[in-house]
Amino acid sequence: VSTTFVENCSFQNLEFSHLNTSGLYLGMGTNNCLVKQSHFYDISGTGIFVGEGGDTRNVGEQPWEFAEPEVAAFNNKIEFNLIENIGVEYLGSVGIGIGLSNYNTVRNNVIKNLPYTGISVGFKWNTHETPAHHNLIENNSIEDVMLVMNDGGGIYTLGHQPGTAIRNNLIEDLPQKHGRGPNAGIYTDQGSDAIEITNNTLVDVRNIPIYNNSSGTNWFDGNEIY
Fold this sequence. Notes:
By secondary structure, this protein is mainly β.
């Protein structure tokens, strides 16, 4: 299912399963929508994705994120969903992805048994200002991810994201890395900047619990590692 220029929609108590693409895509201009208490499983690609990536299309001679940032998806809520066994064929898929989008909330979801990253936020490999900001990732349970791929994590970020907060999440049971890149519980990758990472709990993350790579200034406080 995909949406474009939709407001105030709701996806509740649904099942997305046995799909050879992704589950749900809240695309360009999708605002004030709710995804709640739904089950995503046996999906070839990503479970839920909000917004667009960077440099995916041009408006005139500029990437869309600079030419028309006002069309970015915003203020969507993803809550109390179960996302498991996705990325079955496209192994680089994520459980929940937030692209260049803002004021979204990802809260109280359970994400487990994935070949790659649990939650990915941001989609620009530098510190340029984009429509990615003020996203809240809190109280999610992420376990048994990064089972096949490397260079990702329980929660993975890219790019300048002022106002974005990652807090009170439980991330557990991540294996050793399978290639050159790290497997991290929380991974602030290239350009990640102005993000608050607080009061998260990381249990049995066997490679790197928290990894800050080529990033700007992020705030880490109160995170517990076991």
